[in-house]
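Next up, a specimen:

>
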Amino acid sequence: MSVSFNFPKMISDVGSTVLIEDKKAISQNLSLMLLSTKNSQLGDPNYGTNLKRLIYNHTRFSYRWNIYFNKIIHARNNS
């Protein structure tokens, strides 16, 4: 079982922490990691990926990555 904070709404209206579980938590954590760039998190410079750099490099290689990236986002939004 995987548990995580709900992002971006981590605090409910009554002041308690909002948690999500299982598939939704894994999907959210994976998508946050993939969308974060390297060196963007202060405590962990190795957290994140260079996907954005690969996607916005205008080559055929980046076009394929863009397709995969959109599939990941689409899968996350439909979970």
